[in-house]
Amino acid sequence: MTHNSGVRAAFTTLGCKVNQYETQRILETFEEAGFAVVPFDAAADVYVINTCSVTSIAESKSRYAVRRARRAQPDAVVVVTGCATQMALNREEHIPDADVMVPNPDKLETLTATLRARPDLRPIAVVGPRPRSTGRTRATLKVQDGCSVFCSYCSIPYTRPRMESRPAEDVLDEAERLVAMGYREIVLTGVLIGSYGPQTGSGGPDFETLVEQIADRCPGARLRISSIEMRQVTDRLIGLMEDGRVVPHLHIPLQSGDTDVLRDMNRPYTQADYLRLVERLHRRVPDFVLTMDVMVGFPTETAERFESTLHVVRETRPLKVHAFRFSPRFGTPADAWGDPIEPTVKQARAEALNALSGEVGDGVRRRFLGRTLRVLVEGKVRRDGLLEGLTDNYVEARFAGSPQLARSYASVRLDEAREGACYGEIAIDRPGLLVRKSGSA
Ligand code: SF4
Question: Is the N end or the C end of the chain the one with fewer CB atoms within 10 Å?
Answer without folding.
Answer: N
